[in-house]
Amino acid sequence: MKRYSIFSLARNALSHHEDWPQAWRSPEPKPAYDVIIVGGGGHGLATAYYLAKEHGISNVAVLEKGWLGGGNTGRNTTVIRSNYLWDESAHLYEKSLQLYEGLSQDLNFNIMLSQRGVVNLAHSEHDLRELSRRVHALRLNGIDSEVLSLDEVRRLIPILDCSPAARYPVLGASVQWRGGIARHDAVAWGFARAADARGVDIIQNCEVTGILRDGGRVTGVETTRGAIRAPKVGCVVAGHASVLAAMAGLSLPIESHPLQALVSEPIKPVLHTVVMSSAVHAYISQSDKGELVMGAGIDTWNSYAQRGSLPVVAHTVGAVCELFPIFGRVRMMRSWAGIVDICPDASPIISRTPVEGLYFNCGWGTGGFKATPGSGWVFAYTIARDEPHPLNAPFALERFSTGALIDEHGAAAVAH
Ligand code: FAD
Ligand code: PYC
Known about the structure:
Helix content: 25-40%
Strand content: 15-25%
CATH topology of the largest domain: FAD/NAD(P)-binding domain
Structural class: alpha/beta
Number of helices: 12
Bound molecules: flavin-adenine dinucleotide, pyrrole-2-carboxylate
Number of strands: 19
CATH superfamily of the largest domain: FAD/NAD(P)-binding domain
């Protein structure tokens, strides 16, 4: 076993980080692969990793037009939970949460999972009824969830304004203790490193500009670095799924919107759980660095520009200060946006398509970070076997013609 002494720590601190091994290679694209994954966010990298690990398919390329995790993976507010209402979603997100719970060990990379609990505040009798309905549904699915009384909320979050004089007084809450946050970059990097170690080629700065087909079957992709052939192509390009689909002559039931988030200057630890309120329309957690990480609902217009608008930021800061007047004196540091693809039922699409060998994993809207490992796991299964796993069968494209929609607008809550 390698031993680390105070001397080796000091030597590494002064080494200017030289001679570190590369976390993953940067290979030239080969002319052909068994599978091409378009999109080097968490979901695409997880798919490649599980293709290699679970299905022995490692002749795989992940093609990313920018840098790994530069899309929504690196822009999200890192909330993880599995408290979805309907059985189909609860099972899928719970699979993901369980994978998260073992992910640092599996990838041998610290993803900084912090299961600090996710609290959803109730501000009316209606909220209370909705929250307890969800808690009961979750418990029937074996997922941890409980209702908190106002006193319990007060004890858990002493800095929350629980006064009856508040515009939306807090009446209680629900909590999922196993929920929390994880480090978003580490999730992408951990999957990248582990996929690379299993032989997957990760190719950055390689934009897919066309989907090559012969008759009704996919044969590869056109890219800014030339054509690359493959009998199977999986598209995992959150925010740009419709753009990729159009390259194959497909139209998806998706709308693309900016979603914003913002962080404050770092302050001492004061907030130990994730807090969400649909009524004031904001959510907040405190990062390990001390920054307050907060977020908003989507900007109402469609856009592919990864920036938001001042009114949404102003609304969110106002809402957070209503819940936590103590934060009124904290200075904001920066805000940003990502583009989220939203389906009419606020549930994702993980599916084969009418083009043979072409698969789509998209429509995670405002809530796909929590699904990263689970999504990759079921998508790898779907691509490897050319059939859905029972966990993602309900999320196929066919639901938009059969009408078997899975309405999770309530679970997406604040961010919608
Ligand atoms: P991405 O990380 O966006 O990866 C897709 C990749 O595809 C990108 O890197 C992009 O560059 C690439 N790409 C696109 N087009 C092409 C092309 N033509 N060729 C090659 N590559 C291409 N979810 C939660 O669960 N919890 C949260 O707290 C949360 N907060 C959020 C806050 C914000 C502000 C935003 C924007 C989103 C939030 N989400 C959250 C949603 C979550 O971020 C996404 O659902 C999830 O990260 C999607 O992961 P992905 O790997 O599919 O997408
Ligand atoms: O899905 O939990 C979530 C979430 C929080 C913020 C944005 N999405």
